[in-house]
Amino acid sequence: MEKRAYDIFSHFNREICVKVIPGHFATKHSHISHCIDMTEVKSMLNSAKAAAKILADSFTATPVDTIISLERMKMIGAYMAEYLTGSGINLRHDIAVISPEIQNEKMLLRDNFLPYVKNKQVLLLTASATTGKTVNSGIDGIKYYGGTPVGAATVFGGEFDCTVPVVKLFGIEDINDYISYAPQDCPLCRQGVKVDAVVNSYGYSKII
User: For residues 160 and 183, what is the distance between their CA atoms, to the nearest angstrom?
Assistant: First the structure.
């Protein structure tokens, strides 16, 4: 499967790269035609810093008290906080970066995390936002815990309705023939094409 992989580079900075593997993949929300491997941008120092700088640049005029990091994006979230506090409206402002639990696809904040969200301006950070379900669920969670969502940032995203600005590094328009279907509507399944791998925020697991 990895032999099909190819790299795409950000239009903003060529230090930011993700691997794309064409095939048939299952996520928790959909079946997709391409797996987006974000291991490098999530894990490598220079790539994570470059991604954080671009995402942070879109929120220099937005008050931010807390960044909620989902899908193993805490390294990028920490660098975003550093960049945001270096200039603009958040200059020298102390920004929290937290990673809440997710249960039944809902955000769960323990009592010790509540002071970082209640009555705070909160930015949501995710790795992927193709259908909008993760982002919109996160926005609902921020509101439920008394915070004010001010925006969302993601490495790879699609087009969907959202009540806050959404910034992305890569979009489905960057990948030729990218498609996403609800599992029950997947044409590849109807054609009998086997699923290559199951994909989540930790990566992918091939189905033998």
Answer: 18
The DSSP 8-state label assigned to residue 55 in this structure reads H
Residue type present at position 151: G
| C-alpha 95 chain-centroid distance | 19
Q: Is the dihedral of CA 116, 122, 127, 133 positive or negative?
A: positive
Q: Which helix (H) or strand (E) holds 143?
A: helix 133-144
Residue 153: phi and psi, rounded to 5, are -135, 145
Neighbours of 143 (CB within 10 A): 14
Query: What pTM, to 2 d.p., does this model score?
Result: 0.92
Q: How far is CA 176 from CA 28, 35, 116, 179, in A?
A: 23, 13, 40, 9
For residue 208, what pLDDT band results from cuts at 50, 70 and 90?
A: confident
